[in-house]
Write a structure and sequence with these properties.
heterodimer, A: 10 helices, 31% helix, B: alpha/beta, Glutaconate Coenzyme A-transferase
């Protein structure tokens, strides 16, 4: 089996400005944050971000990387709204495709199956149709029903984060919820998987049931080991959400100075620098 | 200790799940979450209750606590399977609403023009899909004319006027039930418009009309029922011992 492991610094060799990027996780849960931070360090721009949105959307918006966001919601879960996403919307800086969460899932399923659409009841008679004038309805050939023809969502590259994988890209989740990471991988031309730990293949099933193998190497092109790579979002059972840090992130949306200071302290160096700055932040809080 | 408004509201929320049978209960907000638990512990033992994460619990989970805090797990409900349940119709929701109009159209997406909103909110989330698949009620912790508006800016949850105007059979599962607020319980008349079903004890029709941004039928003399002794004890001692309910609704 091919060894697909690679250093974090090589992520951007798989990405280009203008691409459509899918991001795994849900809200502020198991987001591939180390990969997002690597994008922040790059000169990539004009990205279309497709996700059940969490802080990755806000961070990429704040850094001016986003042309368009495609989402069912953008939330930090324990904090309802991401202030940077909110600012980008209220200043009209980004385009959006906002869908019902179930429509979004229908779109992922269609994209993963290479179908042009999936019929769904969700969205009928709501403003989602007005906000997305490209949407069409489809008449059932069997009875008198009309559905929304939710277009297949396709990504150039999907970025997902799991607990463990082998070097070939067999990815495993150990928490209670797979979220939609397998579908994101299947609906993308290419998928980069970051994990807490790369382990030998035999170890994957030695300590966890085979059903935890969420993503097959069929759908993975690169594996990056990034311990604490989902920080500050949760990555059960390895760690929970860093609520104190998330509050600091949310507070950085207050004004330009606050964002500048946050960026300076946490986002101006490498991933190793980031994790060191986070450790210092945590230590400060316990003092 | 006399009964608080928050407790009146929690019991009204509980009653919203009274005759559902074996459905998945979904409530957004502290008072609806108390209502779900109260319904399960009293009149509706078949109700299916999640922990807010990926588990269904055969014991009623503590308010704000996930399965990690203990209790017997009876099922697995990761987010993706929530949509399967929504599509099956075996669910009943009580959602919030930043704006609600007289037809029960609800907005949680944004205030203003969606292209560049005055105030970005959370997005439509599951409201469009919920409202066309199963019964949806709403919970409004502060009944005022900024919430109850003439017309919502973005239709997230589909109201009765739009559902009735739809010409195919696809909207046959659309069902709006109640709107429970800190002042009253509202339901819908035959014409599909919101009306007052009962006033919470001490609330006047004038108060509700003044806090509502459209004309609303306040002709009923019904008063929202008070909690039983059993319900009060469950709320105070078992479900919400830390009185989180008082942060959502004050007297």
């Amino acid at each position: 089996m091919a060894d697909k492991t690679m250093p974090l610094e090589e992520l951007t060799t798989h990405l280009e400005s203008g691409m459509t990027i899918g991001v795994g996780g849900w809200g502020s849960r198991r987001k591939p944050m180390a990969l997002i931070r690597e994008i922040l360090r790059s000169d990539l721009r004009d990205l279309t971000v497709v996700s059940y949105g969490g802080p990755e959307v806000g961070l990429l918006c704040a850094a001016g990387k986003v042309r368009k966001a495609v989402y069912g919601f953008v939330s930090l879960d324990s904090i309802a709204l991401d202030p940077h996403f909110r600012a980008a919307r209220e200043n009209g800086r980004i385009e959006v495709e906002e869908y019902d969460e179930g429509m979004f899932l229908a779109g992922l399923r269609a994209g993963a199956a290479r179908l042009s659409f999936t019929p769904t009841r969700a969205g009928l008679e709501s403003s989602v149709l007005e906000m997305n004038p490209h949407l069409r309805l489809v008449e059932s050939p069997y009875d008198d029903e009309v559905y929304v023809a939710m277009p297949g969502l396709r990504m150039d590259v999907s970025l997902i984060h799991l607990n463990r994988a082998d070097a070939a890209g067999n990815g495993q989740y150990l928490g209670p919820d797979p979220y939609f990471d397998d579908l994101l991988a299947q609906a993308a031309d290419k998928t980069i998987l970051s994990v807490e730990k790369v382990v030998p293949t035999a170890e994957l099933t030695a300590t966890a049931p085979v059903q935890s193998l969420l993503v097959s190497r069929l759908f993975v092109d690169g594996v990056i080991e990034t311990p604490h790579g989902a920080h500050f979002t949760s990555c059960a059972p390895d760690y929970g959400r860093d609520e104190a840090f998330q509050r600091a992130y949310a507070a950085s949306g207050k004004d330009a100075d606050a964002w500048q200071a946050f960026q300076q302290r946490f986002l101006s160096g490498s991933e190793t620098d980031y994790q060191a700055a986070v450790a210092a932040f945590a230590e400060e809080a316990t003092r | 200790m006399s009964v608080t408004r928050a407790e009146i509201c929690a019991v009204a929320c509980s009653d919203a799940w009274r005759d559902t049978g074996e459905k998945l209960a979904h409530g957004v907000g502290t008072i609806p979450a108390i209502g779900v638990r109260l319904a399960r512990l009293t009149h509706n033992p078949d109700l299916v209750v999640g922990d807010g994460e990926a588990f269904l619990m055969s014991d009623v989970p503590p308010l704000g606590g996930s399965a990690a805090a203990g209790g017997q797990v009876e099922g697995w409900l990761p987010y993706r399977r929530v949509f399967d349940v929504v599509n099956s119709g075996r669910r009943q929701s009580m959602m919030g609403g930043s704006q609600i109009d007289q037809w029960g159209n609800q907005n949680i997406s944004a205030i203003g023009d969606w292209r560049q909103p005055k105030r970005q909110l959370i997005g439509v989330r599951g409201a469009p899909g919920n409202t066309v698949n199963h019964r949806v009620d709403y919970w409004v912790s502060r009944h005022d004319s900024r919430v109850f508006v003439e017309a919502v800016d973005i239709v997230s949850g589909v109201g009765n006027d739009r559902a009735r105007a739809h010409t195919s059979t696809a909207l046959r599962f659309h069902e709006l039930g109640l709107v429970i607020t800190n002042l009253a319980v509202l339901d819908y008349g035959d014409d599909g418009r919101l009306k007052v079903r009962s006033f919470h004890p001490g609330v006047t029709p004038e108060q509700v009309q003044a806090a509502t941004g459209f004309d609303i039928d306040v002709s009923t003399t019904e008063v929202t029922r008070e909690p039983t002794a059993e319900e009060l004890e469950l709320i105070r001692m078992v479900i919400d011992p830390h009185s989180l309910r008082d942060r959502e609704v004050q007297d």
